[in-house]
Amino acid sequence: xxxxxxxxxxxxxxxxxxxxxxxxxxxxxxxxxxxxxxxxxxxxxxxxxxxxxxxxxxxxxxxxxxxxxxxxxxxxxxxxxxxxxxxxxxxxxxxxxxxxxxxxxxxxxxxxxxxxxxxxxxxxxxxxxxxxxxx
Length: 135
Fold this sequence. Notes:
about 140 residues; alpha+beta; about 35% helix; about 25% strand
């Protein structure tokens, strides 16, 4: 998804018009997470944390990943919102993103930089939804 944002950004700077900015891309489904560690998080927070480094190379990009049932895995989050500043904020807090992803500890990392969408059960479970906004 971060590569898609880069693609859109590159088109914008070269004057191509496949995607006109600002644009919002909407993705649905549930990503697969290979649980290796003992951290805390879910599919949406893992996706958001994994995208944060790629988004850091860009300007004016925001990604929101949300579990429609209001519960992302076994943590107190419905998802997360990251932008092109999130990765640097994590580094500033001394958080190693690769280590957090290896330990499946996306919730703890993103909570440290106030990127968590609080959980509130909705009573429905359609899909996870990911929004990518590129200015």
